[in-house]
Amino acid sequence: MSAPIVIVGGGLAAATAAAALRDSAYDGGVVVYAAEPHLPYERPALSKGYLAGEKDADSLLVHPPAWYAEHDVEVRTSCRVESVDPDAHTVTAGGATQPYDRLLLATGASPRHLRSADESGAPIAYLRTREDSDRIRSALAAGRRVAILGGGFLGLEVAAAARTAGAEVTVLESLEQPLLRVLGPEVGAVFADLHREHGVDLRLGAHVGAIEADGPRARMEVAGGDVVADLLVVGIGAAPDVALAEAAGLAVDDGIVVDERMRASHPDVFAAGDVARARHPVLGRSLRVEHWDNAIRQGRVAGHTMAGVDDELRDLPYFFTDQYDLGMEYVGAVGPDGYDEVVLRGDVAGRVFRAFWVASGTVVAAMHVNDWSASDSLRTAVGARVADLG
Q: What phi, psi does 163 have (nearest 5°)?
């Protein structure tokens, strides 16, 4: 009996790859290692609907529990892979060695930690797992004070959920606008105004000094006045979980380096999702994307490729956010050389508009805010000349 395909990871990319294998008529064994005590689940709602109490745990699951038995996919939960040996075609978990025919690493990313917060003894939280979201949700009650370090998407989504629940919220962002590195100052200002209108104490250009326990609370030293909170949520980015890949000798560069078919630098090893730095044939460069849609698309390509079906990554990066009554979709990717201008069309003040990031006269990324009729046209806008947008 031949060795199975082994998938390391308990998230969306892993579960999508397993489904793609079966959809491709692959009939060999499939073994999924999930380090958490849950079947593979999706993470976006952890900072949105699940955090706000609008979704339950079952709604997070990528596949219903019965799907795995029906498709002969073995999931080993609470089972963290400790090492990979590409030459021997084995993985080791819990002291047991598992041979594989092909291997997919979908290990995701982990929150970047702040040592001064971790060592402070104050109530600190990071957000990556269901348990993390449960803990933060328990603090989102009227009269509670929540501080959030970082004004990226995760931080702002947590802020929206906290304010909706009636908590007092302070967001500390070191840059001049939230989401500055992703959206630029023009669109970042839209999100700043949104959160201030909803009662968030948004402090921009805020540099946090000492973090310490103040009884059961956290105290942050910030110019303009210390911030005291019942919980400090640290959201300063994430790093790809590449430890297994590095130890196995795979090529790593801000993620596991893969081609457009998700093949890593060693034969029969693949990577997908937040951990993968994939070659994108349309964009003409490699990039790592930490978003829901990317996990689906890369997981599907990896599953197809491992099953012997010709497929490659061609879809443009896509992400979305929901904060209060603002919904947004973004397509494309600003390259390492940046952009020349942002063209805004529509009612920016009323938060129903479209935005186009332009480099050398060509649209490299497009976004809409609350303009749902624009969803399909965003993809066709990317790559077009800005003069042709009308």
A: -65, -40
